[in-house]
Design a protein that fits this description.
The structure holds 2 protein chains of 2 kinds. Chain A is mainly alpha-helical. Chain A has one domain (3-184): Ferritin (Up-down Bundle), CATH 1.20.1260. In chain A, 73% of the residues lie in helices and 0% in strands. Chain A contains 8 helices and no strands. Chain A has helices spanning 3-24, 33-61, 65-70, 81-84, 90-111, 117-144, 148-161, 170-184. Chain B is of the alpha/beta class. Chain B folds into 2 domains: 4-76, Fe-S cluster assembly (FSCA) (GMP Synthetase, Chain A, domain 3); 87-158, no CATH class. Chain B has 5 helices and 7 strands; from the N terminus they run H-H-E-E-H-E-H-E-H-E-E-E. Chain B is elongated. Classes of the chains: A mainly alpha, B alpha/beta.
Chain lengths: 192, 161
Amino acid sequence: MNESEAHSLLAIADDELILGWRDSEWTGIAPLLEEDVAFSSIAQNEIGHARALYELLARERGITADELAFDRSPEEYRCSRLVELRLLDWEKTVARQYLYEQADAKRLEQLMQSDDPELAGLAAKIDREEAYHRMHAQMWFERLKDEPRFTAALEELRPLLDADRDEHSPELSELWDEMTMVRRSQPAGTAW
Amino acid sequence: MVTTEQVWEALAEIPDPEIPVISLVDLGVIRDVGIANGSVRVEFTPTFLGCPALEVMRDAMAERIRALGAEPDIVVRTDDSWSTDRITPQGREKLRESGFAPPAPRETSAPTLVQLQSNAFRCPYCGSTDTRLENIFGPTPCRSLRYCSNCRQPFEQFKTI
């Protein structure tokens, strides 16, 4: 894996970890039971992808995936501003999902072409799973595409996709505190 | 000294933690078993990367191998070489008998929403294809929810990976 690949991999892993946490915030309170199940499942998948990517990166650095995922300060995360926001607003959540999955598909396609067979193989596996997230996003897009609140949410959130990844919203720090608190709550000597 | 056959037999007794009607061997997730210097190396692929049963499966395999008097070396493979096509014919039949529709064959490109919404999926209870998609997601990442309009029975459809 070359340096530019490692750099982009960390950004993807951070995106998937943070979006996974945000998606999980719908567990138990989504407007439809089906969506409660869907967002919980998507969250689980995203965090699974983050773990696999962190493991690949952590091995090269001689640290663990958990250390790489959680032992950095919030400013050091490389995630997109889009995934940081705590959006407990249905149309915005669906808009984010749609924007994110489209962008994610493009970069996965690139990673699948990597000369590093391990990286290309992992990207291909992730893409097989993401195909179901894309279908879910597409289904909601078709349903809401003529709703002004939804189209406004798309326009509002779209610029955050390409915003500078070194700049973060205060909401990322809040989430980081929450993640750290959850992590420290693990009793010594137990496995998750 | 333990043989690869003994290891395969021992692993065939481990049920999938989330769908216990099928063993890890029937699920096709065990990719390779190798023996060297008293240590047994098992390579396996999770169905989904975020599968919470990953650690449970790893521990169960290690325990069975230790019971055979060998040191386990369990390696997780995270590439795209496993697909639901690797579920054995017996495994597919066990799934169907238990009310899980086995996965459709993998195609070169990923399945589409139009395909999932079509009525090409067969109800594991009555065999009708008059079924509809209820939810792409289900109780675990590897399953979708469908409803059979013929026998009016909801059922779980194994996703194609």
